[in-house]
Amino acid sequence: MKNITDSFLCLGYWPSAGSFGFNTDILATNLINLSIVLGVLVFFGKGVLSDLLDNRKQRILKTIRNSEELRDGAIEQLEKARARLRKVETEADRFRVNGYSEIEREKLNLLNSIYTTLEQLENYKNETIRFEQQRAINQVRQRVFEQALQGALGTLNSCLNNELHLRTISANIYIFGEMKDKN
């Protein structure tokens, strides 16, 4: 009888066509196994792989389209922002020019107002000085009049006697009576 191991496992040589065994030639068996695995993978994996690649391609294209749309939107917003910036700069220049002329106008108005106020203050000062001078003159006149009256009364009291006093009173009453008749 043949050895059992000889029929199932042939070490070192190729088994005959009718028997089954393990091939120990690593290079030959690897190539055969690899080609079988690759063939199975290509046959069964072709659809899955193409679906994965198509999905990936669609996502990339979609991302590119979205990026282009976003870019176009950003460009449009940039143009709008630039237009608004130009408008604002123009308006700012107009305000600046108007502001400077308004400032100059206000400055002139303020200076004119200050000069007018200074003139009014000068006039008030002069009126106050004249008023105080007039008041001082009136006070001096009042004192002079009071002193003259005191002196005259003193002179009259020392010089007048009863008869002269009665005549003076009668003359004054007569003068007042004529003044009353004229009115």
TrEMBL record:
Localization (cell): Membrane
Record-level GO BP terms: proton motive force-driven ATP synthesis
Annotated Gene Ontology cellular component terms: proton-transporting ATP synthase complex
Main subcellular location: membrane
Keyword Cytoplasm attached: no
Coiled coil: 64-98
Superkingdom classification of source: Eukaryota
Tagged with keyword Transport: yes
InterPro entries for this protein: ATP_synth_b/b'su_bac/chlpt
Mode of membrane association: Single-pass membrane protein
Keywords associated with the record: ATP synthesis, CF(0), Coiled coil, Hydrogen ion transport, Ion transport, Membrane, Plastid, Transmembrane, Transmembrane helix, Transport
Transmembrane regions listed in the UniProt entry: 26-49
UniProt cross-references to PANTHER family, sorted A to Z: ATP SYNTHASE SUBUNIT B, CHLOROPLASTIC
Its job: F(1)F(0) ATP synthase produces ATP from ADP in the presence of a proton or sodium gradient. F-type ATPases consist of two structural domains, F(1) containing the extramembraneous catalytic core and F(0) containing the membrane proton channel, linked together by a central stalk and a peripheral stalk. During catalysis, ATP synthesis in the catalytic domain of F(1) is coupled via a rotary mechanism of the central stalk subunits to proton translocation.
Similarity annotation: Belongs to the ATPase B chain family.
Protein known as: ATP synthase CF0 B subunit
Species whose genome carries this gene: Smithia erubescens
Lineage: Eukaryota, Viridiplantae, Streptophyta, Embryophyta, Tracheophyta
Gene: atpF
